[in-house]
Amino acid sequence: MESGAGKHWTEEEVKALLSVWSEKSIRKQLHGTLRNKGIFIYIAKRLQELGVCRDWKQCRAKYKNLKYEYRTVKYAHNSGDATKTMKFFHDLDAILRYEPVAQLAAEENGRCSATEARLNASPTTDSTQ
Q1: Which range is the signal sequence, renumbered to this chain (predicted)?
Q2: pLDDT for the residue numbered 52
């Protein structure tokens, strides 16, 4: 039962997951994909190469949990509650910062254009400099 579903992830295992998740090709595949079993099979294989023995279901569950916790903390920060925090917040922020979460909310209200989404996604890139 060493690699059972109830086994807690160690800090090293989470760091390995984040390193694979942070790869541009992985982020691109995960973004907007609902049927992502194949991606998590690949992530589990990559983790095995790094010495982390987790199956694709465990990887997907950890991915979802980390993402949920990150969004909860991010929402709290945006609401003025800077006391809420989580381990790996800055790592997750670097990975998820450019996910168009704000864009989706704005599109639901019918106010967001593609140009506006690009401006929101990359505030530091200015082609006029």
Answers
A1: none
A2: 95
